[in-house]
C-alpha cells in the first residue's frame, strides 16, 4: 500500500473543474493490506486512543508524505502539521467507524481490482482522503 499527497489536481489550472484539488491517496494495495489497516485503526486509534502514523505500518510505503490519524472530539479533517509533507487527520469515533465501513468492500478479493472510495467527507476542508487500488478516481 502506498501513501501519497497530490497537491494540485488541477495541474496548474489546466483542469479547473478537478475536484478535489488536493488529496491524500492510499493505493496499490490488496485486500489483506486493507484488513490490516482496518485492524490498526480499530486497535490503536479507536480502542487505545493512540495516534497512528500510517507510514509506521510495515505494509505502507510513504511516497511523499506522512499522515497521522488521531481520535478527536470534533471532525477537523486533514490538515498540514508542520510542512507540506506532514499531515494530521483528526476525526471522531463515529468518523473512524464510518471509514472502517467504507473500507470493507476492499477486503473482498473480487472487489479489490477496481473502484475507489472517499474515506471521509471533507465538507469545506481542503484535503480529501482516497482509498483506490489503482490510484484513480
Automatic annotation (TrEMBL):
Organism listed in the record: Filimonas zeae
Domain of life: Bacteria
UniProt protein name: Uncharacterized protein
